[in-house]
Amino acid sequence: MELTITKRDGVKEVFNADRINRSIERAALGLMDPISKVTQIATDTHVTIYDGITTEELDLATINAAVQNIKEDSDYDRIATRLLLKTVYKHVLGDYGEDPAQLEKVHKEHFADYVKKGIENKIFDERMEKNFDLPRLSAALDISRDELFIYAGLSTLLNRYSVKDINQKAFETPQYCFMRVAMGNAYNEKDPTEWAIKFYEKMSRHEYIAGGSTNIHAGTPSPALSNCFLLEIHDNMEHISKSVMDVMMLSKASGGLGASITKLRAMGSPLSSNNTTSSGPTPFAKIIDVAIRAIMRGGKKKGALCFYMENWHYDFPEFIEWKHNAGDDHMRMRTADTAAYISDEFMKRLEAKADWYMFDPKETKDLNELYGKAFSARYNEYIKMAEEGKLRMWKKVPTTEQWRAILVALQTTSHPWITFKDPINLRALNNNTGTIHMSNLCTEICLPQDKENIAVCNLASINIAAHLKKKQIDWQKLEESARLAIRQLDNLIDINVLPVAEARKSDQENRAIGLGVMGFSDAIEQLGIPYDSPHAYDFTDKIFEFISYMAIDESANLAQERGSYTHFSGSGWSQGMVPVDTMARLEEERGVAIETDKKSKQNWLDWDSLRAKVKNGMRNATLMAVAPNANIGLVAGTTPGIDPRFAQVFSRNKISGKYLDINHNLVTELKNMNLWDMVKTKIIELQGDISSITEIPAHIRDIYKTSFSVSPYAFIEVAARAQKWVDQALSRNMYLDDRDMEKTMDIYTAAWRKGVKTTYYLHMKPRHTAEQSTVAVNKSAKLGKIGFASVFKKEEAVTGNQELVSVAAEVVKEEVIEKEQEQIIDQKKAFTLPVEPVKVEPIKVEPLKQISEPVFAKVQTQLPTPHAEGQHYQEKIIDGKTYRVHMPTDPQEQFLCDGCQ
Amino acid sequence: MPILGKASPEDMNLHPMHYQWAYDLYNTAVRNTWFPHEIALKEDLEDWNKMTEDERHAVKFTMAFFNPAELIVNRSIALGIYPYLKSPEAHLYLAKQMWEEANHCVAFEYVLETFPFDREKIFNVHLETPSMKAKEEYVMKYLKRMTEETLNIETPEGKKDFIRNLVATNIVMEGIWFYSGFMVVLSFRQRNQLRNFGSMIDWVLRDESLHLKFGIQLLQTALEENPELLTEEFANEIKSIIVEGVNIETAYNKDLFPNGILGLNADYVNQYVQYVADRRLTELGLPKEYNVTNPAKWMSTATDVLELVNFFEQQNTKYEVDSGHTKKPQT
């Protein structure tokens, strides 16, 4: 059949396979074995196209054909990325021929036009041209950095962050996008061009990436650059109504929200205006839940908000049901998230097996403002009043019962998230202006708010993996990144345009920023450190202590240059405190020791002189917060935040599409060991869990675990170590394989004991997933059933039919199951390697490990002391003589030996 | 207790349990419970407005098939499977499966009501399109022998009829036709369209995978307990039932994609159908018929690996009800 192509101008022409092949070939330049890859993509493209397909669709078909092969070889990722880039270049720069040098030239030359056209079309601020030396900026553009992208990252950047033209097509190349963000944060510098180039250098190399809202709005005429807002809803109709409006306005400005509803009186509480009673917080929350659905944040993300409620609220039991999928729809939040704000008093009562009392906030107004010892004292007074009959509404349950109810809801609906009020407030340096009533949408922000202030935070994240050099952290580069990121974030605040007065006020008076970290797992994998090892915990300390130090120092520098933030006086900073100093305060108020190693792992950092410097002034109320980075982590092609690898291969379901994520570090290691082709299908079949593939050396399997096979205590330990140095908090995703309630309760209690401020989503491993499509599946063989095969077995002697014999071989008993697997592998090969079948040894598979016990064993958080036993040698008998074989004495060294061999 | 036969009063006791696997599948299915209203379709509507006529046709055509098909499966279970099983644990499972089929029907109903479809037209497609009618007639042909021309389940011929119907409904309709339909819908999500509808299909597919697990284990058990059925002649007949199902689907796919859309055309879908059919044949111990490769490699992203959801962007399709309630509170 002859195929025709419909060109952009509507003209039809005959499909030219050679042209497609050549364009794929160009995208495969410099890769291993390009011919087979080009052939593969061309073949796959061909089966998906149809007569009359448009050229645009043909481009897409080629990209999709490359993408669907990524699981075979990460080179396909490179090819898909380049093919996608080509479509962007063509659209933004016009026809540049196929010459790379010409492309580079056109890319630089077009930059000034791009800025001017943006201003003309009112997409860009006039300062984008007025404040900058455009030729100098275009000279700094480096199109070769587009090679740093992985396909999912580029696609995310283009879908979510890039500016589009009026037809929703790309208006800028990725490098223009980074430069726009750099410029949009540099207007007010003395030499904006110089600083824009510095910021660009960092972002275009993915060393740090600005937060989502900043990427979307920087450079635009009224830039709302903040990511997070935290607002309190007060107990009167005017304020509730105003809050609905604020939520809508802030959502439109593309921010995620936290909203505390603890102050709303309980259902049944009397109203003063007449003699009726209140309907409680639920119906009002529902209004907001519906409102955020209507908003597309910045036109690109759906509105998002998390409700916070303290668990002493009378309606708290109803609150924890909000996310259930069944029940009265008016009492369920379909869009908003929920988080429980839990006090130390509750956790201590849990340990004491005491009762828990719930009150109507109308009668216990001050509880929401109190924390630490003051909260406990007042709470106990209210208990006394309740028991004496002096309160109208109250109830009590065994504390364990409520804890269990919260965690059961968490397991079934992933809500409410568990956050701790006291560590948040007692470890804050910025709450001299009032209590912190909540965290935010992603549980990493800890800022105070009241009726006059909607807290605002501005984010960016450093990519640790981009700071590796020869198996080490490049500390100098990391310092540079931290300092520049702080400066860029501080600049942002004076450019920011926010739609709500209370948010503007809080933003300007506190100048709160949150520098985060991503690529943590990516980095430790490359360093050969397993996530659940004491070395990883010490590495966490090292990284966070260092970044914290540099961030604080830079903010203090900026204070000297630009002045302190409005509420500096009276803050913890003004008393010469740094975040790690607040650990003592938490312990003192809690009356219980925090079970986290408090030592510094960077002894050379001079914290004392920094304390003295901080006392003289700080530019920003807060400096660090580790966001989940689900999107900017993807843009940078690294692991998000401090999360472990979800699995070695998995899919991400995102607004911008569904992507296959394959661990490139692992692929590289396996390719080096010549194992990749042998195990790649097995890895998909095992859903990215390589623990049972014995061909892969054990030390590699230790490093590349899935998040469900890492001990949950390891997540807590990493968070606790990082939290020591971080003044705000961290979005701590949790992953659990085991549904045992006692264990879950213990894990979350451990988080509290270690001083963790917040936890985020709880991901439960699904027990049942859909039948796999692209790997061989035989449900009967798994059951040891052969069905009709026995019929043909009987016939076999007579007919001697080879095909039937092989089917008949799928018999029950164990020794035959191996054959079964051999056959499965053969079948797989048939389509995974269509070009030239290679003889592959059958894969041996261990029975899946019973992971629940080892995984749930408490992790070892300290390194064993070297020389502890006095014996650091082994006795080995060689040729009948005993030799003392000395072992490395530094456990870290011993570990690395194992890790890199 | 044999699995096939007329249920006697003793068979109304769950214990002693003879078919633990059926009970386990029941429990898995219960944890899997979901409701259509958990999916919000607003953004999909925006996609719909941007789709081409051929793309819309494919979606409507698929919906037109699935909506009645779920009810046909239910009928087949109620009349052709449930009455001929003795095992109460299998009855428990089938009761849950029937609720799931009903739930799928309502889920498609929910989509039909939300999208700007001409509903009357869609409802009539399966009555007016020969290729779709052929699919329904195919299933009804085997079911009819279980209902109107009832044979005694205690006899080998009766048991054969049972197997024929089970293969037509469970292996062909649910295990091949539905799978190909799901692939078609999920292909839209692969291009970042109809993502929420895609999430719903994830849920349906997860249910259907269980149905198939149950059906195959039931079939294997019935064959094991009735070795007299294991003749070459009957094996070949079963194979031909499956091949017939594939042929009917080939005609249907031509109507589904008269022209083809980006990423899909009739040949492509047919190759997928053949690939899945070979898998089913192998699962029943029958030789492969087609020996083709899976054209939809992207399905590894769509269904084969665990999914990490950015919760505030997408509906998570991995939640389970009743988790954690395994132990009683100790207070």
UniProtKB/TrEMBL annotation, chain A:
Q: Which top EC class is named for this enzyme in its record?
A: oxidoreductase
Choose any GO biological process term that the UniProt entry carries and state it. deoxyribonucleotide biosynthetic process
What GO molecular function annotations does the UniProt record carry, in alphabetical order?
ATP binding; ribonucleoside-diphosphate reductase activity, thioredoxin disulfide as acceptor
Q: GO CC annotation: what is one?
A: ribonucleoside-diphosphate reductase complex
Catalysed reactions listed for this entry: a 2'-deoxyribonucleoside 5'-diphosphate + [thioredoxin]-disulfide + H2O = a ribonucleoside 5'-diphosphate + [thioredoxin]-dithiol
Segments forming domain ATP-cone? 3-94
InterPro entries according to UniProt: ATP-cone_dom, NrdE_NrdA_C, RNR_lg_C, RNR_lsu_N, RNR_R1-su_N, Rrm1
UniProt similarity note = Belongs to the ribonucleoside diphosphate reductase large chain family.
User: What is the protein's known function?
Assistant: Provides the precursors necessary for DNA synthesis. Catalyzes the biosynthesis of deoxyribonucleotides from the corresponding ribonucleotides.
Name of the protein: Ribonucleoside-diphosphate reductase
> Native species of this protein?
Candidatus Staskawiczbacteria bacterium RIFCSPHIGHO2_01_FULL_41_41
UniProtKB/TrEMBL annotation, chain B:
Which reaction is this enzyme known to catalyze? a 2'-deoxyribonucleoside 5'-diphosphate + [thioredoxin]-disulfide + H2O = a ribonucleoside 5'-diphosphate + [thioredoxin]-dithiol
Q: Which residues bind Fe cation 1?
A: E70, E101, H104
Keywords for the protein's UniProt record, in alphabetical order? Deoxyribonucleotide synthesis, Iron, Metal-binding, Oxidoreductase
Q: Which GO terms describe its molecular function?
A: metal ion binding; ribonucleoside-diphosphate reductase activity, thioredoxin disulfide as acceptor
Q: Name the cofactor(s) required for activity, per the record.
A: Fe cation
Positions binding Fe cation 2 in this chain are E174, E208, H211
**EC number(s) recorded for this UniProt protein:** 1.17.4.1
Recorded hits in InterPro entries, A to Z, give: Ferritin-like_SF (IPR009078), RNR-like (IPR012348), RNR_small (IPR033909), RNR_small_fam (IPR000358)
Task: State the free-text cofactor note.
Answer: Binds 2 iron ions per subunit.
Gene Ontology biological process: deoxyribonucleotide biosynthetic process
**PANTHER family linked to this entry:** RIBONUCLEOSIDE-DIPHOSPHATE REDUCTASE SMALL CHAIN, RIBONUCLEOSIDE-DIPHOSPHATE REDUCTASE SUBUNIT M2
Purpose: Provides the precursors necessary for DNA synthesis. Catalyzes the biosynthesis of deoxyribonucleotides from the corresponding ribonucleotides.
Q: What family is it from?
A: Belongs to the ribonucleoside diphosphate reductase small chain family.
Name it. Ribonucleoside-diphosphate reductase subunit beta
Origin species: Candidatus Staskawiczbacteria bacterium RIFCSPHIGHO2_01_FULL_41_41
